[in-house]
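An example makes the point: we let one protein speak, the chain in one-letter code, the fold tokenised, and here it is:
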Amino acid sequence: MNLPRLVPAAFVALLLHSSLMHAAQTASCIFDTFSAPSGYSFSQVNGVSDDGTVVGQLSDNNTLQLVAFTRSAGGVITKYAAPKSAATWLYGRNATGVNAGFYQDSAYPEHVHGFLLQGSNFAAVNHPNAANSWLFDANLLGGAVGSFSASQTVIKGFRLVNGQYTTIAYPNALATYALAINDNGDVVGTYASSIYSNGFFWKNGTFTTINFPLAKYGTVLTAVNNFGVIVGNHLLADASIGFIYENGVFKNIVYTGASYTRAGGINNNGLISGQIYLTSKKSLGYTAVCK
């Protein structure tokens, strides 16, 4: 999963530290691939809910306008654009069909606003006193996570429960992105203290750094399910390679014949969602069961 195009230049993902020195294995995966609807290309393929619904973002091949999408397990793709938006993203979806995302204003001055969407019910989520808010995920217990612009140069993460915001900010980091939350309240994401990035696991105010071993340009953790299985990406100069992290073991997600394969989400049934980049530069979405 890519981070939003609206992230600051300070968030160029590279790796600070890695205490994990063992080479990663390759997971054994069974893939189910799918194409973007006619006239569109996949910009991002992100989370997946327990019923197999995948969420993400499409780019119009003619206008380049960015709209969000949901794709049911049966293959039905539905496009969505937030009111008065120039671009709309969906990042996460919980088991009851609540989607989490954000949009950019269509009118100047342009700001970013988080939102929750269930069916046709739309609710804006804006961190108080922040110019921009990104919402990435929601769990079944009313918790949601995202990030906000704390200043012109610093972005911090947050957890939102019952209208109360808890800041999630790695010490001295220029940017902290809280990208996913499970029903146990575990949060994963990424932080950057300089030009490097690190994956993190956060619970009750405590950070644990989780970095892919010997990642060249950094680590982004994109999702965590209720069993503690994490997916994410380690970053190359021009690509992101998906992986699974479980019980201290990293496994790469590899689609045969692809240039690279990104991971976006994982549900409580172990179904992984993401994006495949073929050598023809065509992009496919996928769901996969990996061991």
Observations:
- The chain has a mean pLDDT of 91.
